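Page 47, continued from p. 46.
Same chain as before, 339 aa.
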Amino acid sequence: MIIIIVVVFDYVEKVDDFTELKAPWRAIVFDYYLNFIPYFINQFSSLFTFIAVIFFTSKLAMQTEIVAILSGGVSFRRLMWPYFLGALFITTLSLVLSLWIIPMTQKDCVAFEQKYIARRVREQYDRHIYRQVEPGKFAYIRGFSKNTSVASFFALEQYDGSRMVGALEASDVKFEPETKHWTAQRYITRTFDSEGMETFTQHRNLDTVINLDVVELGRLTELLTTMNIVELNDFLAQQREKGSDSIRQIEVERHIRFAYPFGTFILTLIGVALSSRKVRGGTGLHIGIGITLCFSYIMLTRVFEEFAKGGSMPTMIAVWLPNVIFLIVGIYLYRKAPK
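Result:
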């Protein structure tokens, strides 16, 4: 039911783009929504599991079945086993999806958005792109077009500490996807001596290879969502060698893929401990308190993600801290529940 509501709202928001850019129905259904739905389900699988646990356990409690089970000599710990086996299955499935399957489906989804969502088309590449290709060497690219693989301006700058010691500049530079070469008809080299005097030299027929693939020029968020865990680890190692400033964002994405599925265990523990007691407010009270806790968990994870990306906290600690906090809450509720 939640997925249907999400799809309807998403379609209403984007129907103008679909109409304006003439997106075919087959692409909307098969390339976009059939890939969007699994991504959304997996992203919030812990929330859906939590709601299911609340509904089921609360109904048992309202019918006094949990009291009967505990009175029959079954411990609360033994009562938790079926829940944890279910949570283990869902967590394992979510991990497989996050690490391997979802990135494959997101390739079609991202490609569709970049073709038929006007905002994505405009934002696919920044007007000004500045990337570190190796320690002390930076590439500046302006006005890159995916359709023609041509940048209106290209500069390759070499630094010694904070001092520029040389640069290469060219206009209308073309990227050759097959050979990974950047080519131009004319280019200029700039050199600086120890006194800061600058020398210009004109050249013809630029043909160079730099440690920068065209895929790195796009929006990093969309690029990371299309990588499986092996590709993500390789990309992280590559960016570390370059000394890139996007390392934190890549590390956050990698930790998220493990942290979110394990949240299913924590929310299952909280859900059972919270809804196993018969209260006057009934199932509605359990659901209200549970959803408040669940959305607090989601909000906390988003806040700490931004802390990690901004460098305010180490990435591993920031991403996993909400899990640790709510695990402590879950253990407290679990110890209190049998009483």
